[in-house]
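User: Teach me something about this protein's shape.
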Amino acid sequence: MSTATQMHAADLMTKEPVTIGADTTMRQLARLFEEHEVSGFPVVNDAGQLVGVVSQTDLIRRCLSPIGDEAPGFFFQEIAEQLGEEAELEPEALIIVADIMTTDVVTAKPQDTLASVSRLMTGGRVHRVVVVDPDNIPVGIITTMDMLKALTPA
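Assistant: First, the predicted structure itself:
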């Protein structure tokens, strides 16, 4: 592998990233985070094209956001109260990834240099950049941890 200053996105990216659909439910999303041990997923449409990205932070923000007239954190309060009473949880309204995903996704091309990917991450204040092909189909993903590994001598 070449030095970090000569590397390109294709050299560092995790190839064939796991993607999810915008209609994935919150329960499915939480299960996928655990199953794949990642903190975010590219979201694609039926044609496989990138339409957003969703992270654990997005999920937490949604859980802490106000619901109607209810205060932030209402979701967690309800769960705590119901568990305290050992009652069955009431079903929540169906919330899907499309409701919480970020649609303004920071992307790169496989031939982009790591320096340019780094600038994208810092400028966009993001922890992952989705690498896409000319048809906007995710072919890889680069995280801040990937960048740190590239800069850290073995």
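Now, about its shape. DSSP finds seven helices and seven strands in the chain. The CA atoms of residues 133 and 139 lie 6 Å apart. If you'd like, I can walk through any region in more detail.
User: That's plenty for now, thanks!
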